[in-house]
Design brief:
alpha/beta; Quinone Oxidoreductase, Chain A, domain 1; Rossmann fold; 2 domains; 7-stranded mixed beta sheet; 6-stranded parallel beta sheet; 15 strands; about 25% strand
C-alpha cells in the first residue's frame, strides 16, 4: 500500500512570538510497516497552549528539535496494521502530530470509544475535559458555597472548569479578554460574573476586589502573569490554587512573574499545586463517565472551534495563543468515517 503524506515539521525553533515561518510543510510517501507498527490517516488534530510550551525546551516531555514533526494529540483511522491489537477501520488516539498520515508504534496508540460526536474525544472527554475535571476536583478541590476564580474562562479548559464549579454549588467568577467573550461566559456558560482583563478603565485587581469582596477560595490558573498576581492578592486564608498553565508566558520573551508571592503564601497559608492531566490517569474513567453524563443531561456546554485542513494548523495555534478561540480549538483533516 502506497500512502502519501503531508506534515508540518519545525523549520526553526521560535525565539520570540510564534510565526508561520517557524513551520515547514513536507510531503512524501510512508515506508512499509514493520512488526508492531500501524499506518493511520489523521482525522482531527488537537490544538492546545501547551503545544507552544513544548517548543521552549524539555518539560514533562522531551524537547522538540528542529526537523521534528510538530507534536500534538490527534484522532486517526487505522489504514493498515502489523500490530495484532489494531485492525483497519478502527479509530485511535495518540501523540501523532501535525500530519495527514503517519506510521506509529501500536504501543503509542489507544482505541477511541463509542461516544459521539468524535470531536468530544479531543474536547469534552479529551485532555481539555479531563484537565478541567481533575484539576478542579483533585488538584484544588471545590465545595458548595465557595468562590471559584477561573482565568482563560472562554478557553477549552477554563470554560469547563467554571461550569463544573457551578455544578458543585460554587459561586464562579471568570476572567477573559474582551466584552464579547465575557458576555458569552456569563450568558451561555452560566458563570456568575466575568471580568475583562483588557478593560483599562477597570483594572483587574479592583474589579476582582469588587466581585469577590470576601475573597477567593479556589483559583484555577491557566495564564500565570498579571492575572495570577491579582488572584494571589484576592485569595482568602487557606485558599487553594490549581496551577494548570501559563499561556501568558509561553509566546515571546519571558516576563517577570508575580511579585510578593512568598509573603502572600505564608501569611494567607495558601496551597499552590501544579499538575498535568496524566497525574490523575487512574481516575480517567470517572472523569469520562461524569463528563459524558452531564453533557447528555444538558448540564455542560461544550464549545468547539474547528478549523478545516492541515494547512490551517500553524495559524490555528498562533491564533489560539492570541486568544482568538472560544472553547476547544482543533483542526479537522477528514470527516468521521463512521
Amino acid at each position: 500500500m502506497s500512502i502519501a503524506y503531508q506534515r508540518f515539521v519545525i523549520d526553526e525553533l521560535p525565539k520570540g512570538p510564534l510565526e508561520e515561518r517557524h513551520f515547514r510543510l513536507e510531503e512524501g510517501v510512508l515506508p512499509s510497516l514493520d512488526a508492531g507498527q500501524v499506518a493511520v490517516r489523521v482525522l482531527l488534530i488537537s490544538q492546545d497552549a501547551a503545544n507552544r510550551a513544548w517548543l521552549q525546551g524539555a518539560t514533562y516531555r522531551g524537547a522538540v528539535q528542529t526537523g521534528d514533526v510538530m507534536p500534538s494529540g490527534a484522532i486517526a483511522e487505522v489504514l493498515a496494521s502489523e500490530d495484532p491489537a489494531f485492525a483497519p477501520g478502527e479509530l485511535v488516539y495518540g501523540d501523532i502530530g501535525w500530519q495527514s498520515h503517519a506510521i506509529m508504534p501500536g504501543a503509542a496508540l489507544r482505541k477511541v470509544g463509542p461516544h459521539r460526536p468524535l470531536t468530544h474525544h479531543l474536547s469534552l472527554l479529551g485532555v481539555a475535559g479531563k484537565t478541567a475535571y481533575h484539576g478542579l476536583f483533585q488538584a484544588a478541590g471545590i465545595h458548595a458555597g465557595e468562590t471559584l476564580l477561573v482565568s482563560a474562562a472562554a478557553g477549552s479548559v477554563g470554560s469547563l472548569v467554571g461550569q463544573l464549579g457551578k455544578l458543585k454549588g460554587a459561586r464562579v467568577i471568570g476572567v477573559a479578554g474582551g466584552p464579547e467573550k465575557c458576555a458569552w461566559v456569563r450568558d451561555t456558560l452560566g458563570f456568575d460574573e466575568c471580568l475583562d482583563y483588557r478593560d483599562e478603565s477597570r483594572p483587574l485587581p479592583k474589579a476582582l476586589a469588587a466581585a469577590a469582596p470576601q475573597g477567593v477560595d479556589v483559583y484555577f490558573d491557566n495564564t500565570g502573569g498579571p492575572i495570577l498576581q491579582a488572584a494571589l492578592f484576592a485569595m482568602r486564608e487557606q485558599g487553594r490554587i490549581a496551577c494548570c498553565g501559563a499561556v501568558s508566558m509561553y509566546d515571546g520573551a519571558p516576563r517577570p512573574g508575580p511579585m510578593g508571592v512568598p509573603g502572600l503564601i505564608v501569611v494567607k497559608r495558601l496551597t499552590l499545586k501544579g499538575f498535568i492531566v496524566s497525574d490523575y490517569a487512574h481516575l480517567d474513567a470517572d472523569a469520562e463517565h461524569e463528563l459524558a453524563l452531564w453533557a447528555k443531561q444538558g448540564q455542560l456546554h461544550m464549545e468547539e472551534d474547528i478549523l478545516e485542513g492541515l494547512e490551517a494548523a500553524p495559524r490555528g495555534l498562533i491564533g489560539l495563543l492570541a486568544g482568538q478561540n472560544r472553547g476547544k480549538r482543533m483542526v479537522r483533516l477528514a470527516p468521521d468515517p463512521a
